[in-house]
Amino acid sequence: MHNSDLAFLHGLEFICSVDGRRQYFQELLTPYMTGEATSLVMGLVFGGGDGLTRAFKEQVRTAGLSHVLSASGSNVSLFLSVNSVFIRRRFGSIFTTFLSIFVLILYLSVAGCTAPLIRASTTAVLALLGNSLWKRKPSQIWLLVTTCAVMIFISAEYLTDISFQLSVAASLGLLGATELFPDKSQDYLDQSIKGLKGKCYQSHKTNAKITRVTSGMMQIMQQLRTWVLRTIQVTLAIQFFTLPIIIFYFHELSILAVVSNVALIWLVPMIVTTSLATLLSSVVDFSFIAFIGGQLTELLSQIFILTVTFIGKNDSFLIHLTDSQNIWFFLIYFLAILMLIEYYWLRKRAKTFEERLLCRF
Predict the structure, then answer these.
(1) In a shared domain, residues 58 and 150
(2) If you compute the radius of gyration of the chain from its CA atoms, what whole number of angstroms results?
(3) Domain check: are 95 and 120 in the same one?
(4) Handedness of CA 59, 65, 66, 69 (dihedral sign)
(5) What is the pLDDT of residues 313-329, one digit of tens each?
(6) Distance CA 181, CA 347 (A)
(7) Residue 254: phi, psi to the nearest 5?
(8) Residue span of the structural domain in which 337 resides
(9) 3-state class (DSSP) for residue 214
(10) What does the pLDDT look like over 235-287, one tens digit per residue?
(11) 3: exposed, middle or buried (C-beta count within 10 Å: 0-12, 13-18, 19+)?
(12) SS3 labels along 218-238
């Protein structure tokens, strides 16, 4: 049984007893990768840090990247790639929905019934059923609240489970980033008055846009800049919501978390994707494809390991807080929450006022 399993799951021995299945998949990776890279890949794909050295785990913690070794919503979203437009058009939404649920069950049978995976999987299943059966797209906050209520109803132990608390806080951070930093193709000030007035009259926006990018390189740099800014915003939002829990339980703060996440978070889905391709090729005995996938996974994993070692080798970047500092932190955090609420309310009010003003002319 996985260490983070809770009481109500003890009866699901087939799904939640993962040790044998994890060992099987680790043995599939061993011929193509070194031991350190294999342990890292198992942690990134299925969660956990078994096989990683204590020194490397400390470096991961110093860099503020401990969350990547905990399988969560990002892993679930990758496995839900099976819910693609191509499969839905070919086999129908009902078939694709239940296929996606089956894939999630298979993943849980290897990764274990940890609190973050149960939360992410339940949210995903509710969203899939809402889209396919009821033809509705439930709001993310509704899905999160419903999922948490169901899990707590099944087992109240989730309320004291740190991984569950961090998972919910990270989800709130993602939702907060969406509300505070909406993903737009251009800045709000760059939008034309005609476009804003078109919203008042509910006119259709044309898909034909005149680009002012003078070269492909400038466009690539703009996209890179947008991605970096978006990553920083999401990372800050997640850190903001999860920081109180980390401070409360661990009394420590990594000041490199934002830098290391921007530098390395893009590698994680690539490593997971190539490792899954390697595992699938090994299962069906496509040794050549498995070799190529294994070598690519090894290369990406070594880049991740070397970068984490470089960033996290100085443990002075991990600040340990005293009890009095914790009190001051929570006071400042409470004030920051109030300022954030005021900023969001004022911005929303200002935007509404500007749109109403434009509609008059």
Answers:
(1) yes
(2) 23
(3) yes
(4) negative
(5) 887 788 888 888 888 88
(6) 12
(7) -95, 120
(8) 323-361
(9) coil
(10) 777 878 888 888 888 888 888 887 888 888 888 888 988 998 898 888 887 88
(11) exposed
(12) HHHHHHHHHHHHHHHHHHHHH
